[in-house]
Amino acid sequence: MKVLILTYYWPPAGGSGVQRWLKFVKYLQGFGITPIVYTVDNPDFSIEDIGLSKDIPEGIEVLKQPIWEPYQLVSFFSKGKKAKTNAGFLKSNQTLFGRFSTYIRANYFIPDARMFWIKPSVKFLEKYIKENSVDIIISSGPPHSLHKIALELKQKTNIKWISDFRDPWTDIDYFHQLPLTEKAKRKHFSMEQEVLENSDSVIVVGKTMRENYLKFNKKTVVITNGYDVDISVEKTKLDSKFSITHIGMMNEDRNPIILWKSLALLSNEIKGFSENFTIQLIGNLDASVIDAIRENGLMENTKLIAYLPHEEVYEYQKKSQLLLLAVNNVPSAKGIITGKIFEYLVAKRPILAIGPIDGDLAEILRETNSGTIVNFTELEKIKEIIKRYYKDYLQQKLNVSSIDIHKYHRKELTKELAELIKTTVC
Question: Among residues 107, 131, 293, 416, which is most buried (max CB within 10 A)?
Fold first, then answer.
């Protein structure tokens, strides 16, 4: 059985967006399914990780077609500065030109700025499908232009189709911040509904997303993200200091204000605490995060690290005393499951999360007994939790007894995907 996978993110791209389908492709052949990947020939990635290329199985067919993206034009008018291709374009301190380009992007590039890839991709892939044996196609979004490509291919060839939503469309964390006209909003909602209703099956990464999408497609299933490393039984030498480590982008919505405040208060209340703790932030940070850390007098305790290759990040996770997860404080927060949670699980270190206590992330933490979550405003509660963790650190007994995490291994998740592919085709 052959599956044609449409994905914008593919090595050498870095980040969680590329890892989901890279790992599925890595394991699919073990379940009797041959993947064929369709991706861009000249991508505009915000981060790269060459090391991920080693996970591409030998002999896998990778089809590539060029794309024209408007970011090149934006870069020209912004005096050569490279345009961001992720949610970083919604910074609060935008210039007048930045606000103008965001308005244009939001209202005229629908569903997204990769829309110019739709027509040439449909033309190329329609020919490929007619000339080659393909049983089913899968589109991965965002960018949701990939779903539009798949929708047109289904309409033209009647091929089976699964749409995969790594993130929601109109419920994504920054959708409410976009300067959308009512006409543009209606267009987004209409496109999303059309994709969902015409998919033979829909994959989402969490239960809240599934609940929201079931009204459009009853064949909506959850296949989460996961981890792809062996769980080590060897003890890792932990950081000597009480380290609190966050991996990944931290934008203005994800800025954990109550954490910075609680650490500042504890530094004044507990003798020796300030000398003993360190904050490690690995990844891109919004200026508001740095400002908040500085305002709370924590800069001397903070280590800022630019994007690191995936393998190096894992070493930091294993050595950290405490791992930090910060959910975006947005209307859709309940359904946000950051991809890093699954690799945090396998690092076997306690997790401190800030987000909805009744959300999907909270449920995973409870099911796996892997950490604690506090709401966005629970300052006193987070203080007490950190004090408890710090006391355990001083006594050299800061550990976690997580359970039932094997189900999040990428191979186990690919098994679920393979079953869905086979039932959808049949």
Answer: 293
Work out the number of other CB atoms within 10 angstroms of the CB of residue 216.
16
Residues in the chain: 426
And the tokens for 320?
């950290």
- 272-282 pLDDT tens trace: 999 999 999 99
| Whole-number Å distance between alpha carbons of 328 and 334 | 9
- Per-residue pLDDT, 177: 86
Residue 77 has pLDDT above 50, yes or no: no
